[in-house]
Amino acid sequence: MRSFLRLSAMFASIVLMLGTNASAQEPIRIGVLLPFTGPLAKNGIENWEAMQIARDMINERGGLNGRKVEYVQGDATTPNAAISETERLITKEGIKITTGSFASPLAIAVSQAAERHGVFHWETTGAAEIITRRGFKHTFQVGAPARKYGQAAVDFVVEDLSARLKKPMSNLRMALLWENRAFGKSVGDGIRAYSEKKGIKLVYDEGYDQTATDMTPIVQKLKDVKPDVLIAISFPNDAILFQRKAKELDFNVNAFIGVSAGYSAPDLRDSIGNSVTGIFVADFPPKVNANVLKPEVKKVAEEFYKRYEAKLKRAPAGHAAAGFSAVWALFTEVLPKAKTYEPAELRDIVLKLDLPEGSLVNGSGIKFTNFDWPDDPKDAGQNLRASIGVWQWTKDGNEQVFPPSLATHEPIQVPLPGWDKR
Amino acid sequence: MSTLGQLVISGILIGGIYALMSIGLTLIFGVLRIVNFAHGEFLMVAMYGAWAITRLLGLNPYVAAVAIVPAMFLFGAIVYRMIINPALDKPHLVVVFATMALSIFMQNVALMMMTADLMDVPPIFGRSITIGPIYIKVELLLGFIITILCTVALQWMIKTTYLGKAIRATVQDGEAAMLMGIPVPRIFLITFAGGSALVGLAACVMMPLFSVFPTVGLNFVLIAFVIVVLGGMGSIEGALLGGICVGVVQSLSSYYVAPAFGQMFFFVLFLFVMIFRPNGLLGQKGAATIGMNE
Lengths: 422, 294
Hints:
The complex is a heterodimer of chains A (422) and B (294).
Chain A: H1 2-23, E1 28-34, H2 41-60, E2 69-75, H3 79-91, E3 97-100, H4 104-116, E4 120-123, E5 139-141, H5 146-164, E6 174-179, H6 182-197, E7 202-208, H7 216-225, E8 229-233, H8 236-248, E9 255-259, H9 261-264, H10 268-272, E10 280-283, H11 295-312, H12 318-334, H13 343-352, E11 368-370, E12 380-383, E13 389-393, E14 398-402
Parallel strand pairs in A: 1-2, 1-3, 3-4, 4-5, 6-7, 6-8, 8-9, 9-10
Antiparallel strand pairs in A: 10-13, 11-12, 13-14
Chain B: H1 2-31, H2 39-57, H3 61-88, H4 92-114, E1 129-131, E2 134-136, H5 138-160, H6 162-172, H7 174-179, H8 184-206, H9 216-231, H10 236-256, H11 262-276
Antiparallel strand pairs in B: 1-2
């Protein structure tokens, strides 16, 4: 009996060895969970294009330890679909590394399914705080947490706009408008808390449903409270409806700061034309001042922007640049150091990463929390060095304006001209 | 005061747009009792049509109606023949599921063909007109006028023409109508297609106001169903009144309570109307059960 066991053990190890030898030439398969269809597909597909460029670039450079990178797509249209697609990739396709997801509710779902199977999830752009506060071991969020979007907007007002508008913060009337789903609410809560900490009183603070078809009540109320600065968290359709309604009712502010999604979407200009010029956006930077990037990252950035613009005929939005930055970091900083590509090994590699700002194409660095962050000891897997800032729509593109280290341009059109002059 | 005036005027005007989009559904759901969950997608397709004509041919979206309305009539007729008609003599749920499937199918075809990008047409009239402190968007006002004209014309058609009488007879008692020599299947087809054509008109009026994207219908379809029932099943002037009520209630409650509650309040209004006037605001007595008692 004993010799039989020994024999079968030997046999099994030979089979295993053969297996690993054979797989040395096989591609490294990574599950990409993004909304390819449904209401979020637009952003999902932009992210996908950016990630494909990263895959092509790494494969052209010889792949990872001699192995090509291959993506397996999962269509995460809704949180429910995100869970079942993640499960499918893991159980049917044998995927052990997942990435993507774009929106917070999807990131929450994908990481939950991945964690359940002990799969390594590299989240590119999800932002809700909860993603890294569930004690998960294998979920790493490379993008900034939701509160940072709002903090960037508030810091910009305090450190820059207040002086430009010649209004001390004690006199400056700040209003906050947020769509009331996971992302908008999360960012809105963050802004409210952060403003309080800075001693700023909000003159207006309301949430709305992003499927709203009439913005009159919101714009009318804002007209009545007369804010100097308005910070709005919106999705594309409601952002357009709001801007059109503001024009219709002749509502003017001295500075308008949109946060992420709706105001950073490249087609905002197609929809509201040149009146987009002057609007500030707190978001992932689409393109940062190249001087902050490490020299080798600068070259990668140049290639990425060139390829993206050639492929899609327009510059990438911040989330697409963030998607590229995150998977490129996975390809160059994480996977080359791996031997087994097992989640436990990847986790060890990732937790050791200590990259300064400017290491990723969008100006981010990498340093993950691991229940050791003084601000929130329950947090694990959040990148503390993700770059976030404020950029501005200009006449023919966009320019980073804040923080000064990432800025490519001085803010223009402060105060914002009235609708009759735009 | 000027705030209240602005809210009421804006509510009435947007309500007119809601009503126009619901009149087609009044024919399909209110009169024929066909639960068409793809109504929002009909709107989406027609809006893409209006967008294409405006952007590619450089025409005004209102002029596009000349092509979109007949095209949607034809589209409605084809959908009726291929999907609705075969499901009509089956249990009620079959139509519900068939139109639900059609809705998802159309959304995804649109997504493949048009991508998820938001499409817009440039504004037609630059600035709003002002009456005292109140701002009125010309496109909204035009939409409202078109809605009124459309309501009057349709009302006249239903009340006085042979086709209108035949539609009403078919709905009240299909078998008796058939015995009187009314071509019932054809009346159904024409009414369904007519409802679709009206959605086409609504789409042309809405195109200068809203962006079109594959799931745009979802933002409107629920409002349309509420308006049809609220106004009274099958009542065209009821749809107008229902639309205006929804617009004004939404506008006032969003301002005075909170924007997030705008939708909740018109459903509260809906509940109250259903409790105290189960036939809707202008529905005739027993309207809710017509066509259900064979």
